[in-house]
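2024-03-11 09:14:02 INFO worker-7 job=invfold-0412 stage=load source=structure_tokens
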């Protein structure tokens, strides 16, 4: 009887979780991937309703702290808290299409500046600062926080930015090219949330789905199948 009551309680909890709502933030470039991923997960098991909100690389932390979103799809290093690794992506250099230098010559090219509110560890990773030889990066005076803004600035010849592979199909721009950076380690997309905040049943249900999905997105599996972390079979 006790076991039956426990099972009934668990089933009711799952039903409540599936009928709940989760608010996820992400860069706008992650929206197509997130939609594909959530649709595939729902094909396997019902999940909670997911409301999406666009964030930039400053808001991804501030909105989490303020409790305006339950979690954020972002890239490592993630905001302080807990995270679930979703997969890996290669990194590309976003640069002017008329830039005369080869990729190996980018050491002296400035990186488009970041907002002072961006986490220093996050900025260092995405600017590759310092470079492998220990040379510090030179930044422009810009404070670009969105992909749209720094792709536009790169196209105008103000500097470069390193971006994840998932952005390529969404951000084709005249006068801008995306060059693969083969000597950099890949970036890691994650779902991050504050460690101190109690999980809602709906968010807990989503986490279980994503943890199961993450086990199939190791880099070697993706390389062999030619798939990406958001559409792995």
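2024-03-11 09:14:09 INFO worker-7 stage=emit residues=233
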């Amino acid at each position: 009887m006790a076991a039956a009551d426990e099972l009934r309680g668990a089933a009711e909890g799952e039903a409540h979780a599936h009928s709940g709502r989760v608010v996820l933030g992400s860069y706008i470039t992650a929206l197509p991937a997130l939609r594909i991923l959530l649709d595939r997960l729902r094909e396997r098991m019902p999940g909670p309703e997911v409301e999406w909100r666009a964030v930039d690389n400053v808001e991804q932390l501030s909105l989490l702290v303020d409790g305006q979103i339950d979690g954020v799809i972002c890239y490592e290093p993630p905001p302080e808290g807990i995270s679930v690794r979703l997969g890996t992506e290669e990194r590309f250099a976003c640069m002017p299409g008329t830039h005369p230098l080869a990729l190996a010559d980018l050491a002296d090219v400035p990186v488009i500046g970041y907002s002072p509110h961006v986490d220093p560890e996050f900025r260092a990773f995405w600017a590759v600062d310092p470079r492998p030889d220990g040379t510090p990066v030179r930044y422009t005076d810009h404070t670009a926080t969105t992909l749209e803004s720094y792709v536009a600035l790169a196209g105008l010849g103000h500097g470069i930015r390193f971006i994840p592979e998932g952005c390529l199909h969404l951000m084709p721009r005249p006068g801008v090219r995306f060059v693969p950076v083969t000597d950099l380690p890949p970036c890691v997309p994650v779902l991050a949330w504050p460690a101190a905040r109690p999980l809602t049943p709906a968010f807990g249900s989503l986490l279980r789905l994503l943890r199961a999905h993450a086990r199939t997105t190791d880099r070697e599996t993706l390389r062999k199948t030619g798939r990406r972390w958001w559409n792995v079979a």
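2024-03-11 09:14:09 INFO worker-7 stage=report msg="The chain has seven helices and eight strands."
2024-03-11 09:14:10 INFO worker-7 job finished
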